[in-house]
Write a structure and sequence with these properties.
The protein has 90 residues and is mainly alpha-helical. Helices cover 70% and strands 0% of the residues.
């Protein structure tokens, strides 16, 4: 299964995650391990979100909210999203 491959893939980049989140959320893929991996990649590599950071974080927020993400990185993930929104509004 595709999500099994995502969970074990070691070379996913921020750009890969940004490309995958919308279609996976739209398909209602809610497997915790997938979204935990995505959150880990985004949190660890936030500085690599360079092109339209606000739009990227809006897409992340939509996808993670659509899947009702409450995984092991949820507190850090949602704090990062909130910080980006605050920075944009200041």
């Amino acid at each position: 299964m595709f999500t099994d491959k995502l969970v074990i893939e070691e070379k996913l980049s921020v750009q890969d995650v940004l490309a995958l989140i919308i279609p996976l959320a739209a398909e209602e893929i809610t497997r915790d391990e997938v979204w935990d991996k995505f959150a880990d990649i985004i949190i660890s590599n936030e500085h690599k979100i360079v092109s339209d950071r606000f739009q990227s974080c809006s897409n992340l927020a939509w996808a993670f909210a659509k899947t009702n993400y409450q995984g092991r990185h949820s507190k850090l993930f949602w704090s990062m999203i909130e910080r980006v929104y605050k920075e944009e509004l200041d």
